[in-house]
Design goal:
globular, DUF1615 domain-containing protein, two-stranded antiparallel sheet, signal, 415 residues, DUF1615, two-stranded antiparallel ribbon
């Protein structure tokens, strides 16, 4: 029996891990890096910001300044709560609980209480989960079985052997096979994977495969982002089990989702590009515009995906990207050495890239060549791919859908 359980744990974990690249839609985790004082095109409002809890001595993330407002940025928490409650949808389950969790995130992250920021947060929640704390993924069990079958075929493992092994009972008395059949949410899949991995490790086998559940909670926030952000800024709640599991709670999913959306400064003059960044990764809209300028100057075709470098396991790859290859012949005009170009490109996930010599000089050349200022932000052109998505969707589509919800929310201010 022990041998069978070991085989079950190993086989199941490895097969489930095979879903990692296909189960979740394309969403680049937004890295949290050391932040320098930033200049934002979002105009500040004269009112004082909310009174925050003490930040870390060296914060690695920066709360945004208030945007141009259709309503005041309240500094009084009572007024801020009243504004949020006015803007939230009326018919959602446990409306007061949702409101409390959203407002607590704004307080902890030191984000101004504005209609714009409240509407941005609620619009992403509505788009990502329709106000479900643990959103259901239709047909999740079937998706997992399909990936298991594909991986089993790739490894030459007969499916009858796989299904037989998965008949072993799990901790709740149900078989692993039954639990896969009944999977409804990413939280359930995460718990199942963690149990399978723990069982394998109890036999002294350490699994190198990565948990296939990459996002979770009502804002579908990246778990990698949440873990990174918690190291840079104090998480306001006691961690019950793990930071990963906090993402699957309503309070944690909302907190980290709002952090990913708003807890950094950007040079955008509209929140539309924050929505695009939320899907594609921080600063992707700025970087896609930079890629468009590079393409015009170099007369080369470049994918406008917002990634200026190639990445492997979350780190810059030694293999040059198409953006880098297009910039290299321009080094003389830019008056930058190859090393200086690569140095500046390494800043692409930070606000500082916008102040780098490479960014400033390349746009100066591109603006001159075009005889007009080129856009400094465009929606990244990324096709979203996942078994959870049955239509042809893109990052731009996502941003437009959120922006539509956002505009509806803002209309409540004038009503």
């Amino acid at each position: 029996m022990s041998t069978l359980r070991l085989y079950t744990a190993l086989l199941s974990s490895l097969l489930l891990a095979a879903c990692a690249s296909t189960l979740d839609p394309q969403q680049a985790p937004a890295p949290v890096v050391a932040a320098q004082p930033a200049v934002s095109n979002e105009p500040a409002i004269a009112q004082a910001p909310p009174t925050p809890p003490p930040p870390p001595a060296r914060p690695d993330v920066v709360a945004p300044t208030a945007p141009a407002a259709t309503a005041p940025a309240w500094s009084n928490p009572k007024q801020g709560r009243a504004l949020l409650n006015r803007l939230m949808p009326d018919k959602i389950k446990d409306r007061a609980g949702w409101s409390n969790d959203i407002f607590a995130a704004f307080e902890a992250l030191r984000i101004p209480y504005t209609a714009e920021y409240f509407c941005a947060a609620t619009s992403v929640i509505e788009q990502e989960s329709s106000w479900e704390a643990d959103p259901v993924v239709p047909g999740l069990g079937k998706m997992v079985w399909k990936q298991i079958e594909l991986k089993a075929d790739e490894k030459g493992i007969p499916m009858p052997l796989v299904t037989a092994a998965l008949k072993v009972k799990s901790s709740n008395g149900q078989s692993f096979r039954s639990r896969i059949d009944k999977l409804r949410t990413e939280r359930e899949m995460n718990l199942l994977y963690e149990e399978m991995s723990a069982e394998a490790e109890s036999f002294g086998v350490s699994l190198s495969s990565q948990n296939p559940v990459r996002t979770g909670g009502p804002m579908q926030v990246s778990i990698d982002f949440a873990t990174s952000h918690a190291r840079a800024w104090p998480y306001p709640y006691p961690v019950r089990e793990s930071m990963r599991r906090e993402v699957f709670t309503r309070r944690g999913g909302i907190y980290f989702g709002i952090a990913n959306l708003l807890h950094y400064q950007v040079p955008y003059d509209t929140l539309f590009f924050r929505f695009a960044d939320y899907n594609a990764g921080r600063y992707s809209s700025r970087n896609a515009a930079f890629q468009a300028a590079v393409a015009k100057l170099s007369k080369r075709k470049i994918d406008l995906d917002g990634d200026l470098l190639r990445y492997s396991a979350g780190r810059p790859s030694k293999q040059p990207s198409s953006t880098l290859e297009a910039i290299r012949p321009l080094a003389g005009k830019l008056k930058l050495s190859p090393a200086e170009i690569e140095r500046d490109l390494l800043l692409e996930k930070t606000n500082n890239f916008g102040q780098s010599p490479l960014y400033q000089r390349l746009f100066a050349l591109a603006d001159t060549a075009a005889s007009k200022p080129l856009p400094r932000a465009i929606a990244p052109q990324i096709r979203l791919s996942s078994p959870k998505i049955s239509r042809k969707l893109t990052t731009e589509w996502f941003a437009k859908r959120v922006d539509w919800r956002y505009q509806r929310c803002l209309a409540k201010v004038a009503s």
